[in-house]
Predict the structure.
Amino acid sequence: KFLFCDHAADDSQYLTTQIIEAYVGANASLELYCMEETHYKNTRVSNVYVEQQRDSRFHHNVITLHNGVTRNRLDVMLKGEGAECWCNGCVIADKTQHVDNNTLIDHQVSHCTSHELYKYVLDDKSTGAFAGRVLVRHGAQKTVSEEVNQNLCATKTARMYTQPMLEIYADDVKCSHGSTVGQLNDAALFYMRQRGISEQEAKLLLEFAFVNEVIDQIQLEPLRDRLHYLVEKRFRGELSKCEGCKMCK
């Protein structure tokens, strides 16, 4: 299990780049958690490359709580039969922030499984982008793949660009993909306000419930509990640092 936290030490304008390469051997398991809580002047480019062997398990979770301009790329190569991967992403953006997630799941052999779930909550004039490509190569029979991208634009000025893709060269597979872009449910807001909940609090509860599905996918229990707290603070407009991080105090 690995946890990478990116934070901003001050409000200076700067660029950060990083590359993570992982080789998951036969019957091995890897959990990779990447969390960003930087500054609106920050530009961040992150690339993750993973190769999986027979019967390996890989979990990837990328959480963007606060940023400036971010581009995350994830390439997963399933090279051994029986390999499985779970790729999850959660983005919360407002003001003029931009978050871009690009994924490639490359099924090179048969009997492999992949799951993708990315959710965005965009406010103000923020923009988001998701491009997810699932490639099933010749001979990769019995592949099972699911790709889902769901997005919530809290304002009319927020923009989301989504492009889930399937590229299949095998005839015995079970693959699905889909994306949605919508706004807060007016009926649900009205229902909650009738019961004495303020409009701002009702909006926060709906947004929190929307991203909760991604947070609950995190298997590291202390981190999952911490993220529930941080996500709520983020929706309330409070930028809360990770406990014990001296760099951010």
